[in-house]
Amino acid sequence: MEATRLASVGHTYLSDGQPDKAVEVYRRALELVPEFGQVWVNLAAALNTLGKHTEAADAARQATTCETDSAEAFLNLGAAYGGQGRHDKEIEFYKKALAVKPDFARAHFNLALAFADKGLVADAIQAAKKALDSDGAWAQAHYLLGYCFGVKQMVDSEMKEYRAALELDPSYLDAHRALGAALFSQGKYDESAAAYRRALELSGGQAVDLANLAASLGARGELREAVQHLEKAFETDPDCYEALLNLAALCIARGDLKRAREYAGRAVAAQPERASGYLAQAEALMREKDYDGATAGFKRAVELAPKDLKGHFGLAATLNEAGRPREAIDAAQAGLQIDPQNAEMHYQLGLALNSLKRYKEALEVLAKTVELDRDHAEAHYHRGMAFEARDEPERAIECYTRVIELRPEHFGAHYALGFLYGKIGNNDRALVETRRSVELKPDYHKAHFNLGLAYENLGKIEEAVASYRETVKLKTDYLKAYVKLGALYAKLGENRKSSVAYKKAIELKPDQAQLYGKLAQVLKALGKADEAKAAYETYQKLKG
Fold first, then answer.
1. Are the CB atoms for 418 and 437 separated by under 8 Å?
2. How many helices (H) and strands (E) does the chain have?
């Protein structure tokens, strides 16, 4: 039969990557047999390949009139709608295809792509897994699943899927690139460099791969080779977006924020429709504490990629750091609408609530953070701060202790523990923690002051005096330390030093009656009756 022969020829053309010739042959077959359902399906596939999605939709609908339960017809109709950007209709017809043929791997895969395009990442993951259940040896499905895990910041799962894709297809260029990016994000620069080198080999020296490799080399300190690769990238493509972004990232890592802004700005100028340039620019501005500029950059990134959590996270973090917690709450909640199980977005929301002294709500949100990421040290730390603010020292101590288990050199946790142990009367532990806080931050005056308190509470007066003296060396106007020195010097019988300390305290706080009373006592002990009398009279006057 001639129509059947033509259908076979058309299929050969389509398989050989000649969809235009396939369309011509399929149309000739349909002139002979207008009700040839499979040919309508194949015609729709060829037209979709050519990007003629309106014609493809017409062909696919014609196929469904010939074969009402054709999964392939529904698949191609869904693909045609997808090509037109009508993702709801696209999803509808992929689901119809799966209702007819539940183990249809291509329909599951296309459905996963459609969900991903709509930002429905959790649904995309489930659909991609079903595609792999139907066809486990499908490199593209593993790659898509890896991409979705990456969006959800599940990096270990992301890398596992990229590696699975590469086991099936070692020449899969995009999988090498994506694996390199994931490894880079985890600080595994040797492995990311290896992935990018392989991508460079496969691409024949494309600028993007030169730029990516340069970023890994730069991150592991091989700056000369990194610069050489970037120069090659710019020779290949003077406006190479990835090269500009990676230069910006490299400069941020090295603290050269001015140049980072320059490169990120060039990336934005080269491709103003891409969010990643604005993200890099905003990160540099944030680190420079230009919070207005950073906020504008992150907002623009969110406009361009509203489903990308990086923009929402950067915006929330910037607003928190800028002391704008109400706006940070809005940004964090927008991120949580995209991914309700994202630990970092819960953390930013908890920070903002803590800043507003909404401690009960903050504790609930931060509890969710550590439920999702039990090793999130900063979430435990800020839970401790909330419990401390609610005057629940024992629970705060539990949180700060967990922080130190995760990050033994966390100054804030040691500092807080020293204060809280002193508050509940555990002076030995207070001394241990305050000593450690001084070791970690020897230039912080309050750490030395708290160490003085710990020594004083243990009756170690000379050690306490030494700590208070160190406090006023670091901050010459710290009133509390002078008051403590005045009292302890008097206790040690060193009344001259005591009087000097009290006089300095009075310079800082001349309207505090008690200071004059203490000074009067010390001056009297020194035999300075007139000065003692004057100090006492001032005490009486201020006391009223």
1. yes
2. 32, 0
**Phi, psi for residue 463 in degrees, rounded to 5:** -65, -35
* Tokens 């080399």 sit on residue: 217
Helices (H), 71-120: 71-83, 87-100, 105-117
Predicted confidence (pLDDT) per residue in 81-127, tens digit: 888 888 888 899 889 889 989 999 998 999 999 999 888 889 999 99
User: Closest Cα to residue 451, out of 473, 476, 481?
Assistant: 481
DSSP 8-state symbol, 16 = T
Q: What are the angstrom distances between the C-alpha of 105 and each of 43, 45, 260, 432?
A: 21, 16, 45, 62
pTM of the complete model:
0.67
Encoding tokens for residue 23? 């369309």
Q: Smallest Cα–Cα separation from 386: which of 349, 338, 425?
A: 349
Q: What is the pLDDT of residues 319-363, one digit of tens each?
A: 999 999 999 999 999 999 999 999 999 999 999 999 999 999 999
Q: Please, which residues have CB within 8 angstroms of residue 130's CB and are 6 or more apart in sequence?
A: 108
Q: Annotate 180-244 with three-state secondary structure.
A: HHHHHHCCCHHHHHHHHHHHHHHHCCCHHHHHHHHHHHHHCCCHHHHHHHHHHHHHHCCCCHHHH
DSSP states of 367-433: HHHHHH-TT-HHHHHHHHHHHHHTT-HHHHHHHHHHHHHH-TT-HHHHHHHHHHHHHTT-HHHHHHH
- Cβ 450 vs Cβ 434: under 8 Å: yes
Is 287 in contact with 254 (CB distance < 8 Å)?
A: no
> For 154, which DSSP code?
-
- Please report, as a single letter, which amino acid is at residue 517: G
Say if CB 497 and CB 485 are below 8 A apart: yes
C-alpha to C-alpha distance for 177 and 398, rounded to whole angstroms: 43
Mean pLDDT of the chain: 91
Are 121 and 148 contacting, i.e. CB atoms less than 8 angstroms apart? yes
Distance CA 448, CA 436 (A): 11
Three-state secondary structure string covering 271-293? CCCCHHHHHHHHHHHHHCCCHHH
